[in-house]
Amino acid sequence: MADMRGKIQQLYALEQLAAGDTPIHRLHPGAKLLVTFVYLVTVVSFDRFQLGRLLPYLIYPVLLMSLSGAPWGLVMRRVALALPFVVLAGLSNLLFDRAPVLVMGSLTVTAGVLSCASVLVRTFLTVLALTLLMAVTPLLELTMALRRIHIPEQLITLLEMTYRYIGALLEEAFSMSTAYHLRHRQTKGLELRHMGSFVGNLLLRSFDRAGRIYSAMKCRGYGRPYRQPTPRPWRWTDVVFTILACGLCLLFRFVDVGLVVGRVIGGLAVC
Amino acid sequence: MLEVTHLKQVYPDGTCAISDLSFRLEPGQRVALVGANGAGKTSLLLSLMGVLPLAQGQVRVGDTTLSRQTVDEIRSWMGLVFQAPDDQLFMPVVREDVAFGPRNFGKSPAETNEIVDQVLAQLGISHLADKSTTKLSGGEKRMVSIATVLAMEPQVLLFDEPTAFLDPKARRKLIHLLRKLSQTQLIATHDLPFACECCDRVLILSHGSLVADGDPRTLLYDQDQMDAWGIEAIGYAEF
């Protein structure tokens, strides 16, 4: 837990990026939310064997990252956090789906390999799109946009609270761990016999801390019947961004761009 | 301005935190609230904000009496600066944290930005606007906590141990700031020299009851009386 302070900083690093001022940051949060939604739906709608069709979907996140100045390293590290869970899920495909779909000499590609790769690529793309949405839109604007499209209030509150309390939990764990190691010869980890009381105390302390944070939020008007501020009007740049980005997602979904490009290049070569 | 009448507050386990407390603050007054640990200072402040329910009694701000129906109105007029800035600052960036209150009270984004810039400039911390709230020093956190409350344009300010975690220089800066603010202020503190320097009236709490109300320069130096209330008077030393 020695680098927990760094973890806390990392947790909020994306939100700090969201406070930036680039053309992407200035876009209407509703536009970014809508584009991300269309992107996610189209990416997950592909058949598990259509791996090649997913590649053009890299264009959107790459463009977004370049235009918003979001650091690649930070974004990729956040995306990488989600991948181990999916790798475990994908591995089961390798084991259980062994029907050959492609034979190249002595190399046989099974359906399991393709579907495993497909799951990984789809997860990578969707988590990347969501991470970028967080990196270019402050949480408050995002939740306002969600309220405007009438997502249930309970879900939005859950999102806001989880986001805030994870930090509180990590901070409490950091101070407890420091106090523990200063009075214990073991410099890393916890002894098993101390684990129970450590975790129990951590939960109680976090619960108290969460209560105090909630009081502070209530004192500043949180939880009152939400008075929606006048929504920022959509500008022509928001409309153009939405039409272009959604149009591209739909184009990649319904047209095999790789095939078309291949035919065009093939046609040119014949000419 | 702020009137508390026969206030009683009981914890869920039946412990009486505050009993039969009455006082009145006039507009623009700066009043210290002093008492030993567990005397009920924080409970009183939370009760005034409607965070802890009142078992009995009345809290009035202007013409409005605190009730379930008026609690939002009361919170728009009265702001509480918490003892630990880490509890008060829950947004990742300073600007977002200061904007939290005004946004909840229905200000437009343009109005909110204007208020945030104005308040940060008033406190001389405009340079912190885009900084992470987790990367601030203790003094900076305290200033930002005050900014988050001032941004709601309250008429009454409540402070819970504002000098806690501050070095002497930051403490001095805070005293200057509190003196400059025109709002009515109720300041719970253990820092008696601070109370003497900053406030023109002191309320002393002991076991949840108001035991004295008067001039801090007289009350806080009375060693026998302060000892009876479980507080160490100014100038007391045991070598």
Account of the protein in words:
The complex is a heterodimer of chains A (271) and B (239). Chain A has helices at 4-18, 29-44, 59-68, 72-96, 111-136, 139-148, 153-182, 192-219, 236-254, 257-270; strands at 100-104, 107-110. Chain A is mostly helical. Chain A has one domain. In chain A, strands 1-2 form a two-stranded antiparallel sheet. In chain A, a hairpin with a 2-residue loop joins strand 1 and strand 2 (107-110). The radius of gyration of chain A is 23 Å and the shape is globular. Chain A starts with a helix and ends with a helix. The relative contact order of chain A is 0.14. Chain B has 239 residues and is α/β, with parallel strands linked by helices. Chain B has a single domain (2-228), classed as 3-Layer(aba) Sandwich (Rossmann fold). Chain B has helices at residues 41-48, 71-77, 85-88, 94-104, 109-122, 138-150, 168-180, 192-198, 216-219, 223-228, and strands spanning 2-10, 16-25, 30-35, 56-61, 64-65, 78-81, 156-160, 184-188, 201-206, 209-214. The longest helix of chain B has 14 residues, at 109-122. The model of chain B has no long low-confidence stretch (mean pLDDT 89). Classes of the chains: A mainly alpha (271), B alpha/beta (239). Chain A binds chain B through residues 8-9, 12, 15-16, 19, 138-140, 164, 167, 171, 209, 212-213, 215-222, 224, 226-230, 232, and chain B through 46, 49, 51, 72, 75-76, 79-80, 82, 84, 86-88, 90-93, 95-96, 99-101, 103-109, 112, 130, 132, 134-135, 148-149, 152.
